[in-house]
């Protein structure tokens, strides 16, 4: 019975789009005297909101850009009725596809005590060059590069951008590394509860700000690069695919890897590549 209740609670999982995320219940815990396991309920963070219907059910309005949700039906002109509604809906519909390339920074000096000293290693600089060459070889017209303001991401961006001349760069604190949400299964050696509370809201804000279907005014498909960090990318992938976000730590990303998300005009999302480093020689691949 306890297991069934846990499954029912789990159906309250991932929240869609600009509503909040993050609640699932998982049937794990310490065995009771009778041998059954007590369900361990993962409490939603304070910044979480309402949840979507249940696991495995796609929420078409995950980014709160579904046309019908953008029309104020109370202000409908009753004289024109459905004809006007159809016109308004067409005006709100996305027309273009967004291609989002999520790049993990290259290898860096992890032992430096200050963040500003965590610069790229010689191998890391080689990795960034290879990633830049790979992106350039795709022959795509990239619209912009948005990157984390942390040192390793800035240096990776500087090297990659040399291979993509003319593409504007934008720095943001939203994409800085952090702990998005307590992972499941949990890790015994890493429980920064305060960090989850602080970083989680920021990383969720990055997701809502950058990952969504195209604006209705966008006429052509876009190709955008985001250079940031493993935790941020893993969380974004889970959220975009509407997988339980607590599973982010189950994914692994190499340094300088390319993850490719596609967001269609109807809001459907596809993952074309996850942590691709097939363009690097084996001796240049690392995950530190």
TrEMBL record:
Keyword annotations from UniProtKB, A to Z: Hydrolase, Necrosis
Alphabetized SUPFAM superfamilies for the sequence: Phosphoglycerate mutase-like (SSF53254)
Keyword Hydrolase found: yes
Top EC class, one word: hydrolase
InterPro entries: His_Pase_superF_clade-1, His_PPase_superfam, Mito_Ser/Thr_phosphatase
CC annotations in GO: mitochondrial outer membrane
Pfam families: His_Phos_1 (PF00300)
Example of a GO MF term: protein serine/threonine phosphatase activity
Entry EC no(s): 3.1.3.16
Region (Disordered): 33-57
Single GO BP term: positive regulation of mitochondrial fission
Similarity field: Belongs to the phosphoglycerate mutase family. BPG-dependent PGAM subfamily.
This protein's name: Serine/threonine-protein phosphatase PGAM5, mitochondrial
Organism annotation: Bos indicus (Zebu)
Gene: PGAM5
């Amino acid at each position: 019975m306890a297991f069934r209740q846990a499954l029912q609670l789990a159906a309250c999982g991932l929240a869609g789009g600009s509503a909040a995320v993050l609640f699932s219940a998982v049937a794990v815990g310490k065995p009771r005297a009778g041998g059954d396991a007590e369900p361990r309920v993962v409490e939603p963070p304070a910044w979480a909101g309402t949840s979507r219907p249940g696991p495995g059910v796609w929420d078409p309005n995950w980014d709160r850009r579904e046309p019908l949700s953008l029309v104020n039906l109370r202000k409908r002109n009753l004289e024109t009725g459905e004809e006007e509604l159809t016109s308004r809906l067409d005006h709100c519909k996305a027309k273009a596809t967004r291609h989002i390339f999520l790049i993990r920074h290259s290898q860096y000096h992890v032992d430096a005590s200050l963040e500003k000293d965590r610069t790229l290693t010689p191998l890391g600089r080689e990795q960034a060059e290879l990633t830049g060459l790979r992106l350039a070889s795709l022959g795509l017209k990239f619209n912009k590069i948005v990157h984390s303001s942390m040192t390793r991401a800035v240096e990776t961006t500087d090297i990659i951008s040399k291979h993509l001349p003319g593409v504007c760069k934008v720095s943001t604190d939203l994409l800085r590394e952090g702990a998005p949400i307590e992972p499941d299964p949990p890790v015994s050696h890493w429980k920064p509860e305060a960090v989850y509370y602080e970083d989680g809201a920021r990383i969720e804000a990055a997701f809502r700000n950058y990952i969504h279907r195209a604006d209705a005014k966008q006429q052509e498909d876009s190709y955008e690069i985001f250079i940031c960090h493993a935790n941020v990318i893993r969380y974004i992938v889970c959220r975009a695919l509407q997988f339980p976000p607590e599973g982010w730590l189950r994914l692994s990303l190499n340094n300088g890897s390319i993850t490719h998300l596609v967001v269609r005009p109807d809001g459907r999302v596809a993952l074309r590549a996850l942590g691709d480093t097939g363009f690097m020689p084996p001796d240049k691949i690392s995950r530190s």
